[in-house]
Specification:
Layout (H helix, E strand, L loop, with lengths): L4 E7 L2 E7 L8 H15 L6 E5 L5 H10 L3 E6 L2 H11 L4 E4 L10 E6 L13 H10 L4 H12 E9 L6 H7 L2 E11 L4 E9 L4
Parallel strand pairs: 3-4, 3-6, 4-5, 6-7
Antiparallel strand pairs: 1-2, 7-9, 8-9
Length: 206
């Protein structure tokens, strides 16, 4: 495994300290926008007893969600062993951090699933193992669809980051899983990209 180092990320929830390494995608504009959305949900009076962060990376979004909502159950999942190592260090011993593909290792229902999926066009497969896991963190391929379906399967509500660069029809994916869009909670326009964070909910949840 790559050596861990600590990084302080300035977010709308305040400075958050995460562990990272050379094989992990570090928090960027999309991560910070997702934290902004979590803060807005908190300010709206939302409460969540169970929280799941899919594709957790460094664990930043799970850390922010845990800090804001103090859930009874907090879990983070990633396919990358390097991300899992970082997230475990970030979140500490009380959080469940597991390595599996698109939450295939989890079942049951979660009050909120947070999803910042890979959404950039897929490039060539890298030669070294470390770059491979980094590429998995942001190259869309089949990973976005698998995570979208996993979020729809597990979440009573889903908070999802979306990019104008994505080719996946997220609306169709989540609707096919029985969810409807409630709000665009946060959005930001960058030089060549528009990011939004949307809240979706199960149609049988009031």
């Amino acid at each position: 495994m790559a050596d861990l180092r600590w990084l302080t990320v300035v977010t709308p929830a305040g400075p958050l300290r995460v562990a990272t390494n050379d094989c992990v995608y570090e928090p960027s504009d999309d991560s910070k926008l997702a934290v902004e959305a979590l803060v807005k949900l908190k300010n709206m009076g939302r409460r969540y007893e169970s929280l799941l962060d899919l594709g957790t990376g460094t664990g930043l979004l799970a850390l922010a969600a845990g800090t804001l909502f103090s859930p009874r159950r907090l879990a983070a999942v990633d396919i990358s062993p390097h991300s899992v190592e970082s997230a475990r260090a970030t979140l500490g011993p009380n959080a469940l951090v597991v390595q599996c593909d698109a939450a295939s290792c989890l079942s049951g229902e979660w009050d909120l699933v947070v999803l910042n999926p890979p959404y950039l066009p897929a490039g060539d497969r890298p030669w070294d193992e470390c770059s491979y896991w980094q590429l998995m963190a942001f190259n869309e391929g089949e990973n976005h669809l698998k995570l979208c379906r996993a979020a729809g399967r597990l979440g009573r509500e889903v908070l999802v980051v979306r990019s104008s660069l994505s080719s996946l029809d997220v609306d169709s994916c989540l609707r096919s899983m029985g969810l409807l869009k409630r709000d665009v909670v946060a959005e930001r326009r960058l030089f060549m990209e528009r990011l939004t964070v949307e809240l979706w909910f199960r149609t049988d949840v009031r």
